[in-house]
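// run 5 | inverse folding | seed 20
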């Protein structure tokens, strides 16, 4: 059996559908979009993990805006900051319930030097604002390219 490419399917399926049921042709973009949504619910998002390098955080810009990344950021997995600016990246704490509990507990460990929280979706803010610019390394899960232009 010969292999069928996605482009070939896009060409043949509408012809077949039109022959079977003319109303389904107009619904193809919705069918593809819904199929992609179903697939994303079942896929391991870590399969789409990548590391962003070359980012910095500075006194003038303590915000890290990932909303304009291409491909689109689905989730931020980890932040690493190079405090010494010599390539020794250290994990940056994220401010969440577990972190706040640790930060204010009686038997807490030493307070982390820097931490981050969400300023908005996929916009992170580093606290306290650094006195000089520090390089960042950000591990993210990216959104895969859609199968259709209609999505």
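// decoded
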């Amino acid at each position: 059996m010969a292999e069928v490419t996605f482009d070939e399917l896009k060409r043949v399926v509408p012809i077949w559908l039109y022959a079977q049921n003319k109303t389904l042709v107009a619904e193809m973009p919705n069918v593809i979009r819904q199929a992609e949504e179903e697939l994303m619910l079942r896929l391991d998002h870590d399969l789409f993990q990548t590391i962003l390098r070359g980012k910095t955080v500075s006194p003038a810009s303590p915000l890290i805006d990932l909303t304009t990344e291409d491909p689109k950021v689905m989730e931020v997995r980890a932040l690493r900051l190079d405090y010494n600016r010599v390539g020794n990246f250290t994990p940056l704490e994220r401010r969440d319930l577990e972190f706040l509990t640790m930060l204010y507990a009686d038997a807490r460990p030493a307070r982390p030097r820097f931490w981050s929280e969400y300023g908005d979706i996929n916009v992170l803010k580093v606290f306290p604002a650094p006195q000089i610019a520090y390089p960042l390394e950000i591990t993210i899960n990216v959104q895969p390219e859609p199968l259709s232009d209609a999505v």
